[in-house]
Amino acid sequence: MRLTVVAIALGLVALASGAYYPASQPVTGVKYADKDFLFKQKFFFEVLRNIHLPLQFEEYFPYTKSYITDESKYVNFQEVVEFFNYYKAGFLGKGELFSIYNQEYMKQTYLLFTFFYNSVDFDTFYKNVVWARENVNEGMFVHAITMAVFHHPQLKGFVLPAVYEIYPYYFFNTDLIHSVTFRKLYDQKFGFVSNGKYNVVYSNYTALYPVEYYGEDKLSYFTEDIGLNAYYYYFMMDYPYFVGTDKFNLYKDRRGELYMYMYQQLIARYYLERQVNFMGPIEEFDYDFPIKTGYWSKLSYYNGIPFFVRNDYYSVSKDFYYQVNLLKDYEMRIRQVIDKGYYYAQDGSKIDLRQPESVEYVGNMIFANPDSVDKDYFGFLEVVARNVYSGGAKFAKFFPSALMHFETSMRDPFFYQLYNRFLTFYYQFKSYLKPYTYEELYFKGVEIKSVVFDKLLTYFEYYDSDVSNVIPLKASGEKFFDFSVFARQKRINHKPFSYTMDVYSEFAGKGVVRVYMGPKFYDFKQLQYLKKYFVEVDQYLYDFVTGKNTIVRNSRDFYYSVRDRTTYTELYKKIMTAYNGGEKFVLDNSEAHCGFPDRLLLPKGLPSGYEMTFYFIVTPYYAPKVQQFSTYDYTYSCGVGSGSKYIDDLPFGYPFDRDIDFSYFYTKNMYFKDVLIFHSDEFKANLSY
């Protein structure tokens, strides 16, 4: 049984508005999953059910005791032998607390991932995954199997349940977890379909507790949003900081630049949410002084141990001052190299850091991934920092903080302060690049005449997430698609909107439209500072005709955004129905894991309106080095490592990524539009029944 995947014709239904690239090609036709595809898809859903309990499906029992040792069953047996040796020496045990920012656990995760990745066929992969499910640490297993599905070229297109439904403990407060388990104890009908609307437990944000975090609690609806935290988790699964080199080809996606831009955009989006809540700039900090902002996540691990709590005015223990000194050394080395403008790699080659494309080196240097030029010299800056501000090694290992997990990092206000500091290296590098010239900004013969928006309206709604994995199955024969428990939580959303843009063109041909959203400014020169807080919300290729071009674009089509995921039990029910010969499984159920939540495109407005600025620019089409979609099937893949994800070859964030020369910056192919964002206090329901 080869590791093949049925081509998915309508996978772009969820991907259409994008991942980290704009998708501009329509998809037509319908295809259905065959028996082989459904068997594999069913397998992924079943091994991820009740991850902390033994497998409940008898068909897997024969493979739980041993893994495959036959050399012919692996592509690279040397890597597999390394896993065997490490495992025999001792892996993190089942039930122990796992953190991906613990260097030892990270190494073990990578070896488990390569163990899966090197399977020569699906039969080998299947049996090894079943063995690992029963014999390795649960958190490590979830990371490794997720990475295998995302990165193995022959597993593209399979859907995993949403991470917040696989592991609700990292996304919902302890009171919710307790309420679900206690409810099941005294109500045996709880969770079954026949019980209907009563299978719901309400979930609170941290802000509803008497802990203020110096005003940061106002943003809990944003920082604790399960979609936002899942977005970050999936990005880090697509581009893990410990995976790289030619084997995985992540460098082909301009990995270093992408990393920096992703964090810049997250910080910008967070900044906009702060502004509408009248919270001022992001707090700065110094390694030598206490951290003002504490954080109590209200999360607990599966075994009941709470996440590490960082108190207000947190000071690093004297036992870990040496790590603070490491951070200072790493930062000094990075700043010195950027200021110097060049660096000699280990092979003696000179890297010119005054070239725009060298942002790739700077990004890899800061985040110390395997594609970095010299990670031993520049150090593991973010890994050390996360450990230091999680109580040091003794706390980070035995009860890790929110900073020690991809899934929970963005809940902590200090995450934004930390990465806002790291971004100063990015801005420092960009400051040495010359401003774009008039010729690089102007698109001759193209003029944006007007832009008109619909009314922009945000609101809170209730949303149900499937947290059935909190409650264990009773027996192997139980049909868990007939059992579902929902966590109902208030979340921010916006009414879908459109804009109409009139463009006059003196030529017929392709151009690229970029749209940014940022803070309102009252003096044009304020843009020099505020440009780093503009969020790119849309980008697309357009065929212009001579004369007037009227472009109508709906927010549902914005290239970064994806919509809500189908719930775990609902999708599994569809899979099983088709597998048992019932209604066919349409392959448009494949849903993008690699996009920003559509709900969070706009920051929360005000009843009277909050003014924001949208910026539009039309540029000539600069063809990328590798034609978009030419090296992967965009109908079912996010294109990670393909090198052909992007529409054009312009830098990320263009033209806001460099200093502005205001004597010629504002050209006819640009347009600034001030727009009011309103907010309605009326609740809207988005429920599962």
Describe the protein.
- By secondary structure, the protein is of the alpha+beta class.
- The chain has 3 domains: 94 residues, Hemocyanin, N-terminal domain (Up-down Bundle), CATH 1.20.1370; 227 residues, Di-copper center containing domain from catechol oxidase (di-copper center containing domain from catechol oxidase, Orthogonal Bundle), CATH 1.10.1280; 237 residues, Hemocyanin, C-terminal domain (Immunoglobulin-like), CATH 2.60.40.
- It has 20 helices and 14 strands.
- It is globular and about 70 Å long.
- It starts with 11 loop residues before the first helix and ends with a strand.
- The N terminus is likely disordered.
Comma- or semicolon-separated keywords:
689 residues, alpha+beta, Hemocyanin, N-terminal domain, di-copper center containing domain from catechol oxidase, Immunoglobulin-like, seven-stranded mixed β-sheet, 31% helix, globular, disordered N terminus, Hemocyanin/hexamerin_mid_dom, signal, nutrient reservoir activity, Hemocyanin_C_sf
